[in-house]
Fold each of these.
Amino acid sequence: MTITRAACIGGGVIGAGWVARLALNGIDVAVFDPDPQAERKVGAVLAGARRAYQRMAGQYLPKEGGIRYAASIADAVDGATLIQESVSERLELKHAVLAEIDAHAAADAIVGSSTSGIKPSDMQTAMRRPERLVVAHPFNPVYLLPLVEIVGGEKTAGEHVERARALYASIGMKPVVVRKEIEAFVADRLLEAIWRESLWLIKDGICTTEELDDIVRYGFGLRYAQMGVFETYRIAGGEAGMRHFMAQFGPCLTWPWTRLMDVPEFNDELVDLIADQSDAQSGQWSIRDLERIRDDNLVAVMEALSRQNKGKGWGAGALHKDYLARLAETARPDKDAGDGNGSET
């Protein structure tokens, strides 16, 4: 199953990432965002994505899809197979936008919401055809990170969950269908736990933002990047595996090691503390510089993982390897190695 034409409603960081992933996979995209700066902002993200894709896929890239800035939601969704909503996380705004999408989209179009935590059932109340709405929660940068959490609501048809899974997989993503509808789904619940504990550690003076980031990126972050949580801890159990690990470390769950049940007061003092330390840590780079560094690092990690497991790839690397193979199979016969769709080389 493929996407013949797509619409992106909302052109912020996530929406622009969707535009880039879709267009760089050869799909025509119509964009609607009332922000007068939307075209410039999307263009900046697209430029970075082109650079990353040129390094990642090179001569196998398809002809870039066209990008059109629509005057209305109705105009944008006309003829779209996939419609991706990425507006701000306010339920009343989601309702208004989804109702308008629903009124003008083709009957067989899949509507995906990029929401980070709102349950699809709570959004479906604004739609006459709620059965085709799914949460399709991606991760920044959308054009490189393959995971997309698929969540159906009470009125979502099972066939449309499967259609959504196939559509997102067709653009190189790893769809994971969340089995039960829940606020914040799976990934953001994990991220919220580490974010909340991190705020306490900084607030209490245990470490700085840079020291905490070093602990993650020089330690367990490397393990998580290729084995996740449970496979990592299975190895930690030694030859006896997960049962031994659970027996050894299970009692720690009752120890007062974390402050996850508490929330630090969100005030100007906390904001200044975190922001000032972050400026000291990373202020020498612009955000665009950091995006380029991040993208280069992500491509390098996926390339390295693609060579593991006797060349079959491991984790995100296996998906990366399969994605490039599909691109190579469908590459235009007249495409020469120097064609990068106007991107940097």
Note: The beta strands are 5-9, 28-32, 67-69, 82-85, 110-113, 133-137, 147-152, 174-177.
Amino acid sequence: MGDTGTTSFLERAGIRPALTPAKGLRRFLAKDPLESDLGRRRFRLRNGASRTVFAKAEKSYVFGFNAVISREVEKVEEIPAEQQPFGYEGAAAACTMLDLLTLTRGRRLHELLTGPAQHHRHAAYLGAGRGYALLRLRPVRGARQAHPLLRWLAVDGFGFQWSLARADRMIGERTMPDLFTRAHCSVFDQGLGRLLWYHDCASPDDVAARIAGFPAGRRADLWSGVGFAAAYTGGAEADELWWLTEHAGADGFRAHLAQGCAFAVAARLRSGMLPDHTAQAVPTLAGADPEEVAAWTDRALIELGHEARTHEDFRSWQSQIRHSWTRRHRV
């Protein structure tokens, strides 16, 4: 399993980290860089900036995954800072897979979360969920001393990866895997919403039309996932973001779009680097500056208290963020 495709992308970015080929049984777990080509999955990719954005994100994910398999996770720090969250998402997916396969009770993921990925916890929990999905296992806590609420993002990551591998069924047929309780389904749909942003290449009209085909009870969480991806990954121009808010408002889920954006801003700020595309998207998607929007998430978390950890607490966290947006824009 080579890393030629990933390395060439990084070389074009001006950085040339080379991974040592994995040895032993680990070499069978290494990912082919071509897996990052969403066009091979029959996604509706337009030519231009959007396609490049999604390709870079998934190539960085594959690089981070293979970095763990090659025992060189420190090399994630050598890729562009804007792409490092995706690298650590891949690293967490690989750590989770290795933990599950070797029955080490989350040791590798825990070490990643408390070490290299400590400033990329949102991304790491999303990646952990992707690791569970790769093994077709329902995500559980996955790491000792896991963040009591962020760990629910593993279900979001599961939803993204599960749907990525089964796009025809999950998007075309709008099915839901039978691995989940009702409590998990809403967070799963956030991951599916993130995937829709990729699947329809950041086209507001196409994304809105796709969401409109889902039952009304699922659309709020899909819009939340779209808001996260639009701010976190990017891919849309300013006028497209405006149309996205119009579509979400017309569907009755404008606050959910803003709430997803708030999670993305908080994640990006915690990583220490706010990309230009995020800074430019926030005023449109959330109607406030990035620092204020991130503060909504922090304030809501404080109000929940230290004992918050259940799915109901996670949903309350989201609800309070939406309430902050509503207060901000109340006429």
Note: The chain has 15 helices and no strands.
